[in-house]
Amino acid sequence: MSEKIEHVDQEYFIFPLIVSLIVSVAMILVLFTKLKKVKTNLFFAEWDSRALETTIAADLSPYIDNVIKDIATELIERDSAFYINNLSKLQVQLSSLKVSSQEQNSEALARLSAKYPMFVDFDECRESWPHILRSESFVILSNDELAELFNDIRSFSVLRSQADESWRHNALVSDLEVENAVNFARQLEDTVLLRQLKFVEKLYYPVIYDAEISDDDWLIASQAFKVKRIWPEGYEMESCFGVYFPDLDVYGSFTIFYHDDRHVSFYRSNSSFSELESLDTLSRYGDFSDTRTIIIERMG
User: What is the Cα–Cα distance from 52 to 55, expressed in whole angstroms?
Assistant: First the structure.
């Protein structure tokens, strides 16, 4: 009888234990499922965060590019030699960042971030109306101040790209960029020279054409420009005039040839006017890409 009671007691205690184990396992499974779901949500949240960072960086990239272009065009138009010299120095400076230690670059990035707390702090034109010329927004800044801003933006971009994988915008200066800047600067100079030569030819040609011909004397000698007759080799059939612009310290020339129409050609020259070089001007000021820049005016 006692054995039967003991057996019943064992069954009485084992059954709740089994139930407890089943409940515990069920709870563990529920918790595991929830934990797995949380991990999955965290994974997608992290993925979304990275995607958002990449999107933000992609959106900021063209904005930074436009700010860089605004400053660069202002500088190269003000003083092309200054801009090219600064760009060449910046190329060396930015290249050195690739071999600097991570700690040094992090410190440099921190200094720039403190100097420009927000991206809009790079943009000197941010408060101007859309129709205001960029040059008006930059008028209060000297060449050195603009160059400092230009260098800081590009340095920040390079340092940021090294510290943050989502920042794809790398503003290193390539040899091709420097070469293109040199060529564009020459186009700017030729465009300015063409304007000056056309002004002289249009307003003063009747005066200089009727003036007494001299090999040495200037037909017109003013503070703005000087004009003389020249006889370069290969242009014997044309009336040729050499022009010197003291403010620009540039020599140019124009030749006139009559054959039914009046053909006027403009050139860059050397100080002796023995060489006439074709002008390579900007397309927005007209198509002057021919070997010889020719403007044909119908005679009335």
Answer: 5
SS3 73: helix
Residue 23 burial by CB count (10 A; 0-12/13-18/19+): exposed, middle or buried?
exposed
Tokens coding 248: 């620009």
**What are 266's strand-pairing partners?**
254, 293
Percent of the chain clearing pLDDT 70 (strictly above): 70
pLDDT digits (tens, 9 = 90+) for 77-96: 999 999 999 999 999 999 99
258: tokens are: 């009559």
pTM of structure = 0.68
Query: To 10 degrees, what angle do helices 80-97 and 143-163 make?
Result: 20
Do residues 33 and 136 lie in contact, with contact meaning Cβ atoms separated by under 8 Å?
Answer: no
